[in-house]
Design brief:
Strand content: 5-15%
Helix content: 40-55%
CATH superfamily of the largest domain: P-loop containing nucleotide triphosphate hydrolases
Distance between the termini: 48 Å
Number of strands: 7
CATH topology of the largest domain: Rossmann fold
Largest sheet: 3 strands, parallel
Order of helices and strands: HEHEHEHEEEHEHHHHHHHH
Oligomer: single chain
Keywords: Hydrolase
Pfam family, one: AAA_6
Enzyme class: hydrolase
GO molecular function: ATP binding; dynein intermediate chain binding; dynein light intermediate chain binding; hydrolase activity
EC number: 3.6.1.3
Length: about 375
């Protein structure tokens, strides 16, 4: 394959497993025969990320587009026209959500592109227009067979794609490599415990729509653990690596912070018992929320609300989640305190810089001229 020299930035690379190797071979073989690739499997198995990482390996721009029932053949024709002329790759997520009538037209559009590629043509007729053809363009689709509203692809469209089954990723190997990349020396034993924990939790805990024990949830825990490990090493006066016990402490804190906020009250003891069985005799110290708790108390007083320990705990959980996630969803019945928790945290984050500066002054540190300056948190509410 000719390298595309597309600047893609310093993005993270995919963890290579036997499954991704097999997917790479299938996709490159499909490209060699001027066909597309069709990874299929449940959500969170790495279908889209594998296509994106292959594009990065050959220096190509890969656009990801989420398909829906509202797509029509005119919009898809514009997509294919741009891909054919630019030589880019495109990965259509959840391709089997498109209506079957549109899929039949898409099959004709892709067939005309493949025919021009087979003839090594420099230009070809597409949708009544004579356009230039870049032979390095590629089309990939991902499908979720468990999706309720899926559509069976027409046979003439199936023949233009090589299927790849990506049903069960190697969770333990992926977790081990990610922990090693974050600097954990006991990554092998910790990765097995994480995978066993999520497998047991998915079977023993209650079944809720917002519970997720898949690869995405495991990855978020690993990223959170890596951030905490780097923070602990920066705060430590000694340059020596952390011990296995300290690494276990960090991982347990990450597992609790990532999962406890989403559990129902009756599932919390079950999760704690599973955690105690996998990490016997390890009871990490509770994190220090002294400054944040002081800011929360000030915010509750300013908002003339009552001090409820459970509500304060939810505020701390929300704060820990927004530090590691792009978006956080508060789920609960009407009158459950969702808006109050958000308002308290918003107010606490406004007064938090002031508390930090006051503590620095008490310890005899040099204070800048911005002493007493409050922070700013902008929020807005959407009522659907």
């Amino acid at each position: 394959f000719q390298y595309g020299y597309e600047y893609l930035g310093c993005s993270l690379r995919l963890v290579i497993t036997p499954l991704t190797d097999r997917c790479y071979l299938t996709l490159t073989g499909a490209m060699h025969m001027h066909l597309g690739g069709s990874p299929a499997g449940p959500a969170g198995t790495g279908k889209t990320e594998t296509v994106k990482d292959l594009a990065k390996a050959v220096g190509k721009l890969c656009l990801v587009f989420n398909c829906s029932e509202g797509l029509d053949y005119k919009m898809m024709g514009k997509f294919f026209s741009g891909l054919s002329q630019s030589g880019s790759w495109c990965c259509f997520d959840e391709f089997n959500r498109i209506d079957v009538e549109v899929l039949s037209v898409i099959a004709q559009q892709l067939h005309s592109i493949k025919t021009a590629k087979d003839a090594n043509a420099l230009r070809f007729m597409f949708e009544g227009r004579d356009i230039r053809l870049n032979l390095t363009c590629g089309v990939f689709i991902t499908m979720n067979p468990t999706y309720a509203g899926r559509v069976e692809l027409p046979d003439n469209l199936k023949s233009l794609f090589r299927p790849v089954s990506m049903m069960v990723p190697d969770y333990a190997l992926i977790a081990e490599i990610m922990l090693f990349s974050e600097g954990f020396t006991s990554a092998r034993s910790l990765s097995n415990k994480i995978v066993n924990l999520y497998q047991l939790a998915s079977k023993q805990l209650s079944q809720q729509d917002h519970y997720d024990f898949g690869m995405r949830a495991i990855k978020s825990v690993l990223v959170m653990a890596g951030q905490r490990k780097r923070k602990a090493q920066m705060e430590s006066a000694e340059a020596k690596p952390l011990s296995e016990l300290e690494e276990a402490f960090i991982l347990i804190h990450a597992l609790r912070d990532a999962n406890m906020p989403k559990f129902l009250a009756e599932d919390v003891p079950l999760f704690e018992s599973i955690l105690a069985d996998l990490f016997p005799g390890i009871d990490p110290p509770q994190p220090d929320f002294g400054v944040l708790e002081k800011a929360i108390s000030m915010a509750i007083r300013d908002l003339t609300l009552q001090h409820w320990p459970s509500q304060i705990e939810h505020v701390k959980q929300l704060h820990s989640q927004i530090l590691v996630r792009h978006g956080v969803m508060l789920v609960g019945p009407s009158g459950g305190g969702k808006t109050s928790v958000r308002s308290i945290l918003q107010r606490a984050l406004v007064v938090l810089p002031t508390i930090h500066l006051e503590e620095g002054n008490e310890k005899g540190k040099t204070i800048m001229k911005t002493y007493g300056k409050k922070g700013r948190v902008d929020t807005f509410t959407l009522n659907p």
